[in-house]
Amino acid sequence: MPDEVPKRILSIQSAVVSGYAGNRASTFPLQLLGYDVSALNTVHFSNHTGYGSFRGFRLTAEQILEQYEGLEENGLSCRHGYLLTGYVPGEEGVMAVGQIAERLRNERKRMGEGLMWVCDPVMGDQGRLYVSQGCVEAYKDIIRSADVITPNQFEAETLTGLTITSLPTLRTAMTALHEAYGVKHVVITSIQLPSHPDSLICAGSTQTPGKHMHAQFWYQVPKQPGFYSGTGDVFAALLLAHLDAGSLAEGGALQIVVRKVLSTLSSILSRTRKGMEEELQTSSTDLDRNEKEEKVRVIRAAELRLVQSQEAILRPPESGWLEPRVDWPEEMN
Amino acid sequence: MPDEVPKRILSIQSAVVSGYAGNRASTFPLQLLGYDVSALNTVHFSNHTGYGSFRGFRLTAEQILEQYEGLEENGLSCRHGYLLTGYVPGEEGVMAVGQIAERLRNERKRMGEGLMWVCDPVMGDQGRLYVSQGCVEAYKDIIRSADVITPNQFEAETLTGLTITSLPTLRTAMTALHEAYGVKHVVITSIQLPSHPDSLICAGSTQTPGKHMHAQFWYQVPKQPGFYSGTGDVFAALLLAHLDAGSLAEGGALQIVVRKVLSTLSSILSRTRKGMEEELQTSSTDLDRNEKEEKVRVIRAAELRLVQSQEAILRPPESGWLEPRVDWPEEMN
Asked: Which of A20, A206, B79, B190 is deepest in the core (most CB within 10 A)?
């Protein structure tokens, strides 16, 4: 039995030495699921920025492009049928990633091969932009070439100029993303709605040209207390993995894929929370700890238990509570 | 059932975007085996240097130290009970790694915890040094603090000033490494001896103070035609993983660990060779390819099938042919 040709992903994201964020969060789950992952790191920090302090450096747009050119020169770039992109520092960096996506797609086209680009337009969270306005404009430009985008609530609002406050406005925002950018698949993560105070909503939409309506769905996931870095990066990685494994037929498919992703992610978070509680118990004897040290102690303990969650990554647990919803209430006036 | 405390490894090695070398070769097998791996990358290249051309950059000694200091500042460094080090560019870089090892060991000591450092003194291969003489001197200094060293034949010769041409001279070299540097465990990889022209020899030695002889053994492995980048890095990573899992009792233990490592590595290489042959068959239609392109085509095809070898990493296959040898012929005069 001949081995299959390796499935190769080029993943352009941030990297940390310790803990999980960016490529460090995405690579292992994808490798475990059988993908050869080429990781082009856009920043190299000692740890994720949530700690408050970190050391390291960012790559310039030229350095990002240079690493890609090394791949081109050795006939390595065109082997990647999948592109996954996350945090990129600066407007020029974002534009360099857009250029890489275009060059890779053209190179694949000349070979008679396709490319699937999952783009996480990392710009901000919880009402706060952590990139420049120039970055936002650059993303508005480059996501037109993406096949799937995975903004969080704030990023979807930033890209559309709309405010998501309800299921009807969420639906309107997804439709607006299809219409403004021509992206086929949209998944909006971590949505908080006043109508569902104890849940996070995750919603998806597949463009169905010629039909009256896009195929749109939403899931309701119980909120986990605390902040866990890298969950968005794991989400995008698993989405790519299962999108490829599943059929990409019109309608239906995306909601099955997102269900698998949420099931795995929920299991990772439960395990992380359990490990975190144990770690905080065993390390809580020092009463002299100041406020900053206490904050860092909690952040350390909240690093994802990713290598410990192999079973949940390989086989997303059956999650009866994860019911896809395709009912959308009308906006009340 | 409470989860075990994560086993954390700090791995200081090179990194490539595409393919397998340094941290990119070591990280996945260790993660698969349940270790949390913190990867501090010493160089960032598009691909391994065997391609002839590559793009990217090296970290300065200051940049390497700075990333480590970020970990110290957030209480992250001391969580690593294992240190794995490989290629480091430049004499100052090697000394920075020695300094990190010392700081980490002292920090662990203050906590009442130990550290196991597996040091691969990457300096050259096949009779050719690819680092400066200053680097060699720096390694001679820092390996005194290592618990395990994994030089290849040329590196063992460089560190001892001896020439390995036979089983007796191999044995003498291992003893010399214990005596000159005080390192407890020595494993020499990829040894070619005129007496065994179709094999590579891998030999190990555990220092047994107070006893007349060290516990020394050797394995004979069939040569695989071709060059496969990253095998030394996978070897050192698996050695660390199984050394920890196995008992480190005097004598005996190291040879069982090395057998597991050779068994997994041999399986990875067989799968890589099979995949390589298939790839070269399907891509061999272009007759206009020049010599350089042909060379690069072969190198691309020889990238390790690492993510495809999960079974062999998790469960080293039974290898009846891998018989540990503890018989050492006398040197003939």
From this structure: A20
User: Which helix (H) or strand (E) element contains residue A42?
Assistant: strand A35-45
**Using an 8 Å Cβ cutoff, are B227 and B272 in contact?**
no
Residue with tokens 């120039």: A134
Q: Which amino acid is it at B127?
A: G
Q: Whose CA is closest to A240, among A24, A109, A82?
A: A82
Contact B45 A70 (CB under 8 A): yes
Nearest CA in chain B to A304: B36
* Distance (Å, whole) CA A119 – CA A102: 13
Question: What is the helix (H) or strand (E) element at residue B216, kind and residue range?
Answer: strand B215-222
Number of H helices, E strands in chain A: 10, 11
The full set of domains in chain A, from first to last, is: 8-283+292-314 (3.40.1190.20)
Beta-strand pair B215-222/B199-206: antiparallel
Q: Which helix (H) or strand (E) holds A188?
A: strand A185-191
How does pLDDT run across A211-255, given as a tens digit for each residue?
667 899 999 999 988 889 999 999 999 999 999 876 554 445 899
**CB of A18 within 8 A of CB of A10?**
no
Least Cα separation, residue A119 to chain B (angstroms): 19
Statement: the pTM of the whole predicted model exceeds 0.90:
yes
Residue among B66, B279, B296 minimizing CB distance to A74 = B296
How many CB atoms are located within 10 Å of the residue B224 CB?
15
B254-260 — which CB contacts under 8 Å span 24+ positions? Answer: B254/B185, B254/B187, B254/B204, B254/B205, B254/B206, B254/B215, B254/B217, B255/B204, B255/B215, B255/B217, B255/B324, B255/B326, B258/B187, B258/B202, B258/B204, B258/B217, B258/B219, B259/B219, B259/B316, B259/B319, B259/B322, B259/B324, B260/B316
Question: Among A217, A189, A47, A203, which Cα is nearest to A122's?
Answer: A189
Q: What are phi and psi of A39, to 5 degrees?
A: -105, 115
What are B93's two structure tokens?
Answer: 């870089």
Give the Cα separation of A3 and A32 in Å (integer): 17
